[in-house]
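--- STAGE predict ---
source: upstream dedup step, 1 unique chain passed
mode: sequence only
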Amino acid sequence: LPLRERTRRAVEKVEREDILEALRHTGGNKSAAARILGIDNKTLHVKLKKHTLRGTEEPVNANIRRNRTQ
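--- STAGE serialize ---
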């Protein structure tokens, strides 16, 4: 692949990972995730759509919280 295409794919991968990490950190709160990422809520929604993410991916520590309520 040409360098430009490899670079574009690498940037998209990092962007997707950053969005997912922010969503995990905030328990799926999109407004808080946008603040962490330093972007507007609308921009986050555009990026979620671009990366085919719903923004409802389960947080990493969801099992811990679930066990506390049972």
